Amino acid sequence: MRRDRYRRAHSLRAEVDDHAHHIVLPIGGEYRAVTMPAELGEQVRRRLAGGGISAPVIEHRRSRRWTFLTAAAGAGSLGPKDSAHLFRMFATIAATGSDVVLPSPEDERTGCRTWVEPPAEPAELPPLTTVVDATLALGHPRPRRPR
Q1: Is the Cβ–Cβ distance between 40 and 90 less than 8 Å?
Q2: Helix (H) or strand (E) holding 101
Q3: Using alpha carbons only, what angle is made at residue 121 by residues 44 and 46, rounded to the nearest 5 degrees?
Q4: What is the SS3 assignment for 23?
Q5: Disulfide-capable partner of 35 in 67, 82, 108, 136 (CB 3.0 to 4.6 Å)?
Q6: Which three-class secondary structure state does DSSP give residue 58?
């Protein structure tokens, strides 16, 4: 079963949501996640890679969004300016108590949910702040030129 592989090979504490029939990763405790448009996600992924950092990334093809799995490190409250900026970039941080659906064989077969960057064995998750900082760095508005 895929859930067992996530647990054994990747050290991700995946669970099965029997009601929805999905493999999920509970958010809170040790895991966090950041979801954003795929175009922005590609830029964030390149920025992280440039710093020698990788993160597991899930693609949601229908909505054209990517989810970066992160560690909870640095998961304190985000300031209002940064929260507003993420909001304007259409990026969200998964709420504590929510679940991130991990790709299942059926998802991969249909192309609904796939890995852009699969987790390492065992998974090495960057701190939440690392992914948030990389995202914000890409979205700060350019200074206006005088007219």
Answers
A1: yes
A2: strand 99-102
A3: 15
A4: strand
A5: 67
A6: strand
Distance from C-alpha of 81 to C-alpha of 11, rounded to nearest angstrom: 34
Q: pLDDT tens digits for the chain (147 residues)?
A: 788 888 889 989 999 988 878 899 999 989 999 999 999 999 999 999 999 999 999 999 999 999 999 998 766 678 888 888 999 999 999 999 999 999 988 888 888 899 999 999 888 899 999 999 999 999 755 444 454
Q: What is the DSSP string of 57-110?
A: EEEETTTTEEEEEEESTT-SPPPHHHHHHHHHTT-EEPPTT-EEEEP-HHHHHH
Peptide bond connecting 146 to the previous residue in cis, omega within 30 degrees of 0: no
Interatomic CA distance for residues 52 and 99, integer angstroms: 28
Q: Is 93 in contact with 143 (CB distance < 8 Å)?
A: no
What lies within 8 Å, CB to CB, of 122 at 6+ separation is 9, 10, 11
Query: Measured between alpha carbons, how far is 102 from 24 in angstroms, rounded to an integer?
Result: 5
CA distance 122 to 11: 5
Q: How many CA atoms lie within 13 A of 117 on its CB side?
A: 22
* Cβ-proximal residues to 3 (8 Å cutoff; 6+ apart), any chain: 14, 15, 16, 23
